[in-house]
Design a protein that fits this description.
Blueprint: H1 6-11, E1 17-19, H2 28-36, E2 40-44, H3 51-64, E3 70-75, H4 84-93, E4 98-103, H5 107-115, E5 119-124, H6 127-136, E6 140-144, H7 159-169, E7 174-177, H8 183-192, E8 197-199, H9 201-204, H10 213-221, E9 227-230, E10 238-241, H11 244-254, H12 259-262, H13 268-277, H14 300-318
């Protein structure tokens, strides 16, 4: 069975299941595995050290799949920002036709992508930001509930409220993100008004995910309480896996720490080493509350086929029984 929605029609995939951009994780082998299973995967542009390296990663992905895939470009404030325009050009030059944007004011990037016939999906954490993205001219949005890994925004609205609130006002296709990792989440998101789902933490915990096996096993061992919210006091909230480093950051924030006081603890190079060496406490790493519903490490093909099969069973079986004849 294939679940056909406006989103699957827009991007030309079989199933409305997306593996969004994830720093250090969104690499060719994972993206291609998702694509080959009928979902939509995104290479994370800024995981690659240079625009030319991104071109090479896109080419590598094309050798692994002939199905549609995309590239994520996240635009965030930085003291020394990466050359976003050059990464954007690498995406366009490589013939990629689906892009996931995230971060601040991507209008110039959206305009340039649209000139080249690229479908743009923008990640949002609130209805107002979703409406702004719609006015900006994007083709679809991905709406992140408070449960999500990474940056959930500052409004603290969970998906059960955020998804239908957005569906009431946003006309373009919308996929739901945050707290989704199985068929129940997929069916719930569709019922709430989404046209598909985006999963990050769940795809981190697959055979093709390019992170250390010990971290995959840590995700399985963790429960729904195994996250921390850091940078709350700095109004730049980030949900990360709970570990010795995140607990230290939270404690320092309670004492009034500024970013400079925790800079070394949250350095990206330390977070990257978590995935490379498999040490849960080596640094900060992103994970969502969905950890509590992740109990295995399947292949992407097994995960996606299971979700679609079980979604069909829920829709045609359990839910159908509730309708009086």
């Amino acid at each position: 069975m294939a679940l056909k929605t406006r989103f699957t029609e827009l991007v030309g995939v079989e199933h409305p299941i997306v593996q969004g951009g994830m720093q250090w994780v969104g690499r060719a082998e994972l993206v291609a595995a998702v694509a080959n299973a009928g979902g939509l995967g995104f290479i994370t542009a800024l995981t690659q050290p240079t625009p030319d390296a991104l071109r090479e990663e896109i080419a590598r992905c094309r050798k692994l799949t002939d199905k549609p895939f995309g590239v994520n470009l996240t635009i965030l404030p930085a003291i020394n920002p990466p050359p976003y325009a050059e990464y954007r050009q690498a995406i366009i030059d490589s013939g990629v036709k689906i892009v996931e944007t995230a971060g601040n004011k991507p209008q110039e990037h959206v305009d340039e992508f649209k000139k080249h016939g690229v479908v743009v999906i923008h990640k949002c954490t609130s209805v107002r930001h979703g409406l702004s993205a719609e006015r900006m001219g994007v083709d679809a949005i991905s709406i992140d509930g408070f449960e999500c890994a990474g940056h959930p925004g500052e409004d603290d609205v969970p998906g059960l409220i955020l998804i239908p609130a957005a569906a009431d006002k946003i006309k373009i296709p919308m996929i739901a993100s945050g707290g989704i990792g199985d068929a129940r989440g997929l069916v719930a998101a569709l019922a709430l008004g989404a046209e598909g789902v985006n999963m990050g933490t769940r795809f981190m915990c697959t055979k093709e995910s390019p992170i250390h096996q010990a971290i995959k096993e840590q995700i399985v061992a963790n429960d729904e309480r195994s996250t921390d919210l850091i940078f709350r006091t700095m109004h730049n909230t980030s949900r990360v896996a709970k570990n010795a480093v995140s607990q230290q950051v939270v404690a320092l924030e309670r004492q009034g720490a500024k970013f400079e006081d925790v800079r070394e603890l949250v350095a990206g190079v330390r977070g990257r080493s978590v995935y490379e060496v498999g040490d849960n406490d080596a640094g900060i790493w992103s994970a969502g509350q969905i950890q509590g519903l992740i109990h295995d490490i399947p292949s992407c093909a097994d995960l996606i086929s299971r979700m679609v099969r079980e979604a069909e069973e829920i829709i045609q079986g359990r839910l159908a029984k509730f309708v009086a004849k």
